[in-house]
Design brief:
The chain is an alpha+beta fold. The chain has nine helices and five strands; from the N terminus they run αααααββαβαββαα. The chain is elongated and about 155 Å long.
Length: about 325
């Protein structure tokens, strides 16, 4: 290029020489390698989890992802759960059903014991209650006076034992109207029941019931509550007179008209009745639990199992609950 003075200036071109090994110092490969190691760690962690999970649980997880709504509605761990009553059934992970974790062994053993005890107790109670019912039926058939009351006697099996209900009849009531005075023919029946229950080493829960007929004074005076309790207590005395031991009475309840036998007709004579519940082993454990109300069936089984295994019972039998004595503050006018 020519300058203003007429002299030429040299043109200098600078070239940057690239290093032959500079490309090896980049960091992109490190990120890719870290991602690969992370993926491998996650893969081996997944393999370890799959190897330590029972086959049943794996099928349950698969069932959840196949139909999550069904599993959410039905509960449980899915289709891979045990099909038996008791969860588990083995420690072999390759089994399809009935697998369990090692920590569940003791729980399964306890459940097995409770199930076996339940079956044993139910069978023994059923045999004992059938025997009591058969003996009572034979005693009624052998006595013409009692045979006339057979239509008023109802017996049925309950989980707690044999329930014997004596209901009123239009022409043959158990008690005087509005009174706890026991009719003479009813005394003989109650005393026969007392003797049979005592011979069978039974315990009883006694409850009195009335219909819905109200007293003129309403519920604030002498009412169906007092009348039902008085009639239950009068029946208790007749059972004792027949030979039932005093310690065999577990509860005496007056339930008024709160538990009708014929709910469609609150004034039906069927609702005026005396209920005698002869307790089996399970029922005795439920009612003689030292609590105000019966314990659950599961708690009763646990108490029985503890007693079978030699452990001390959790509580002593409760004392019988005495029903209130008749009130003399007002005159009853009910026709029950």
């Amino acid at each position: 290029m020519a300058s203003t003075s007429g002299k030429l200036q040299p043109i200098i071109i600078k070239r940057v020489k690239k290093g032959g090994h500079g490309g090896h110092h980049g960091g992109a490969w490190k990120i890719a390698y870290a991602d690969f190691v992370t993926a491998m760690m996650a893969f081996f962690l997944l393999m370890w989890l799959l190897g330590s999970t029972a086959q049943g649980d794996l099928q349950g997880i698969a069932a959840y992802f196949q139909s999550p709504l069904k599993v959410a509605l039905t509960g449980g761990s899915g289709s891979g759960d045990s099909s038996s009553i008791i969860k588990g059934g083995g420690q072999v992970l390759t089994r399809t059903n009935g697998n369990m974790r090692r920590g569940e062994v003791e729980a399964q053993k306890s459940t097995f014991n409770l199930q076996a005890l339940r079956s044993e107790v139910e069978a023994a109670d059923a045999a004992q209650m059938r025997k009591v019912q058969r003996q009572l039926e034979q005693a009624i058939e052998a006595n013409p006076k009692l045979a006339a009351l057979s239509k008023q006697l109802r017996m049925d099996a309950t989980p707690d034992g044999l329930r014997i209900q004596i209901v009123d009849d239009q022409g043959r009531p158990m008690f005087d109207a509005g009174s706890a005075h026991v009719k003479e023919y009813m005394r003989e029946l109650l005393r026969s029941i007392g003797q049979l229950v005592n011979d069978a080493d039974g315990r009883v829960v006694l409850s009195g019931h009335t219909d819905a007929s109200a007293y003129s004074g309403g519920e604030r005076g002498y009412s169906n509550w007092e009348l039902s309790a008085d009639r239950a207590n009068a029946s208790r005395r007749e059972l004792l007179a027949g030979g039932l031991g005093e310690d065999r009475v577990v509860r005496v309840l007056g339930l008024g008209s709160s538990v009708p036998l014929d709910a469609a007709d609150p004034l039906s004579p069927l609702n005026r009745r005396i209920s005698i519940l002869v307790l089996g082993q399970l029922g005795r454990e439920r009612w003689q639990s030292g609590t105000e109300i019966p314990v659950s069936e599961a708690q009763a089984l646990e108490r029985l199992l503890a007693r079978r295994e030699g452990a001390a019972p959790s509580s002593a039998p409760a004392d019988p609950v005495a029903a209130p004595s008749p009130s003399t503050s007002s005159s009853p006018t009910s026709t029950q």
